């Protein structure tokens, strides 16, 4: 599994949907449920958190180590969570209309492919991954 994990395959679903949503919004003048203020806040928080996680995981990946601290101390896939719960919903609320379906398409694709990424991580890190995976949920931290 490459550094980008399942993102290239997830993008094969998300990008066509986003393009279709833009097209439908423009042709049908559908801009229902636009909340640009809320969307901008979600986007801003999401981008900051994504950058923090990206810096942590890229350093760890280049060192060949499994990252289990920082952003990765609460969930196994914080970057997917940030995109799915903050960045894409924020973007969708800014644009509104048919774009509101984008986070759902994203999560369907992530759930479809995540097992492959986790198998690759298990092959690469063995028991260290198994122990980590047992202790951490995939996407949402335990309360």
What does this structure look like?
The chain is mainly α. The protein has a domain at 34-124. 71% of the residues lie in helices and 0% in strands. It is built from 5 helices and no strands. The chain has helices spanning 7-28, 36-63, 78-95, 102-125, 127-135. Helix 1 (7-28) runs antiparallel to helix 4 (102-125) and helix 2 runs antiparallel to helix 3. The chain is elongated, with a radius of gyration of 17 Å. It starts with 6 loop residues before the first helix and ends in an 8-residue tail after the last helix.
Write the layout of secondary structure elements.
Elements: H1 7-28, H2 36-63, H3 78-95, H4 102-125, H5 127-135
Helix pairs in contact: 1-4, 2-3, 3-4, 4-5
Short description:
With 143 residues, the chain is mostly helical. The protein has helices at 7-28, 36-63, 78-95, 102-125, 127-135.
What pattern of helices and strands is seen along the backbone?
HHHHH
Class computed from helices, strands and strand pairing: mainly alpha
Beta strand %: under 5%
Helix amount, in percent? over 70%
Mean pLDDT: 94
How many strands? 0
Q: What coarse outline follows from CA principal-axis ratios?
A: elongated
Number of contiguous helices:
5
How much is the radius of gyration in Å? Answer: 17 Å
Uncertain spans: none
């Amino acid at each position: 599994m490459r550094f980008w994990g399942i993102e290239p395959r997830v993008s094969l679903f998300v990008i066509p949907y986003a393009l279709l949503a833009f097209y439908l919004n423009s042709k049908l003048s559908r801009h229902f449920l636009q909340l640009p203020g809320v969307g901008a806040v979600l986007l801003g928080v999401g981008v900051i958190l994504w950058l923090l996680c990206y810096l942590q995981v890229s350093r760890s990946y280049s060192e060949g180590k499994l990252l289990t601290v920082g952003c990765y101390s609460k969930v196994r896939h914080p970057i997917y969570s940030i995109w799915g719960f903050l960045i894409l919903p924020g973007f969708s609320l800014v644009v509104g209309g048919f774009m509101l379906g984008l986070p759902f398409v994203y999560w369907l694709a992530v759930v479809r492919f995540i097992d492959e990424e986790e198998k690759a991580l298990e092959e690469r890190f063995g028991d260290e991954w198994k122990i980590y995976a047992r202790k951490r949920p995939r996407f949402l931290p335990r309360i």
